[in-house]
């Protein structure tokens, strides 16, 4: 991951605690039980943090309603199909 420059390694500041991580690996199979795809994701262990000590704010990025309306208007103007997925 470092070779691909997915992230940068930086020194840990004083009085900061690292959040643990764990890799989750999964294989997808077809009808014949042959492996068709390998998947991996990196999960943080946020449960190890203490509010007020390790963090003070929470934030979850969400889309703006204006962006959704603009996307729908654009797809309608250009006669494109519009589908919504929950990820």
UniProtKB/TrEMBL annotation:
Organism phylogeny: Eukaryota, Fungi, Dikarya, Basidiomycota, Pucciniomycotina
Short name of one Pfam family: RVT_2
Domain of life: Eukaryota
Protein name: Reverse transcriptase Ty1/copia-type domain-containing protein
Domain Reverse transcriptase Ty1/copia-type: residue ranges: 5-87
Organism: Austropuccinia psidii MF-1
């Amino acid at each position: 991951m470092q070779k691909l420059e997915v992230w940068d390694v930086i020194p840990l500041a004083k009085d900061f605690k690292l959040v643990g991580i764990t890799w989750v690996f999964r294989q997808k199979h077809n009808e014949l039980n042959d492996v068709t795809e390998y998947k991996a994701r990196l999960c943080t262990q946020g449960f190890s943090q203490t509010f007020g000590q390790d963090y003070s704010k929470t934030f979850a990025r969400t889309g703006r309603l204006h962006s959704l309306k603009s996307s729908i208007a654009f797809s309608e103007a250009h006669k494109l199909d519009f589908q919504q997925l929950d990820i």
